Amino acid sequence: MIVITAPTGNIGRRLLSLLVEAAPARGEELRVVVRDPARLPAAVRGQVEVVVGSHGDAATVERAFAGADAVFWLVPPDASATPEAVWTDFTRPAARAFAAHGVGHVVGVSALGRGTPQAARAGLVTASLAMDDLIADSGVAYRALANPSFYENLLEEADSIREHGVFTDTVAADRAAPMVAVADIAATAAELLLDRSWTGVGSVPVVGPQELSPNDLARIMSEELGRPVRYQRQPLDELRATLLGYGLNAEFVEGIVDMKRAKDEGLDAGVEHSPLAGVDFARWCAQTLRPAVLATPEATDVH
Q1: What is the number of other CB atoms lying within 10 angstroms of the CB of residue 82?
Q2: DSSP string over the chain
Q3: pLDDT digits (tens, 9 = 90+) for 237-265
Q4: pTM of this prediction?
Q5: Each residue of 39-62: pLDDT tens digit?
Q6: How confident is the model at residue 297, as a pLDDT?
Q7: Mean residue pLDDT across the chain
Q8: Contact 269/178 with Cβ under 8 angstroms?
Q9: Is the pLDDT of residue 180 over 70?
Q10: Mean of the pLDDT values across residues 160-174?
């Protein structure tokens, strides 16, 4: 039995699709933990057992992890809470349930950076690494998927790219770092969950085939979108003020700022890794970003 948390999210829905396709041939049963079962794709509802509730809730994970051999663990970010509450407090009931039910293997979504000088003061990344330690202490065999920034983060910039030809971030324009597509994260998770020959505790860097700077991203986007795109660097103080203006938790905002600062200091580039033969950025732009940028605002709102 494989249990998938957050099965309707950006990573979870891709993982669920892969597992639904592969599980029958391997004799694997699937169970999902979801707040709203109606959000599950209709095609998979009859192929999975559903536990309704939040996987941060003790009673829910007690039901969900009973009889489980493996769990995919993903904490949904919550900008209304502190980083510690989001990652560590949310995970604590699950860690107890892993031990109580003898779950053998857990694959969790985490962040790149462990072992670097920046890791102890990297905000949200530091919080996710503390979550990894909590899970590892439960006694399960654990693999933390150590991810850099996602290509998909740029979808938040689609309106700005369409209307102004500009995208923003806080790192230096020539700071090259690894990135990854969420499809590659899901594929890595599926491989680990289906082949549970691994033991012990460790991190698996999940990085795309290229290291890219914002200037590289701008050049590739310009080529793939057929229009000029340029990078505009945002000061950290301006980012902080903007996020606080949205009403986000002040400690969570500081966690974002600290993470951005650490990335600009080389957090993601400081971990040894072997690039995946996965989705390169140009292909992702053509398949995912281009339709989002070329969509009319009205169509985007309806979607």
Answers
A1: 17
A2: -EEEESTTSTTHHHHHHHHHHHHHHHT--EEEEES-GGGS-HHHHTTSEEEES-TTSHHHHHHHHTT-SEEEE-PPP-TTS-HHIIIIIHHHHHHHHHHHTT--EEEEEEES-TTSTTGGG-THHHHHHHHHHHHHTTT-EEEEEEE-EEGGGGGGGHHHHHHHSEEEESS-TT--EEEE-HHHHHHHHHHHHH-----SEEEEE---S-EE-HHHHHHHHHHHHTS--EEEEPPHHHHHHHHHHTT--HHHHHHHHHHHHHHHTTTGGGS-----S---HHHHIIIIIHHHHHS-HHHHHH-
A3: 999 999 999 999 999 999 999 999 999 99
A4: 0.93
A5: 998 888 889 999 999 999 999 999
A6: 59
A7: 94
A8: yes
A9: yes
A10: 97
Are the C-beta atoms of 106 and 73 separated by less than 8 Å?
Answer: yes
Domains of the chain (ranges plus CATH)? 2-151+178-205 (3.40.50.720), 211-302 (3.90.25)
Q: What is the mean pLDDT of residues 116-143?
A: 97
The owner of tokens 């006694």 is 139
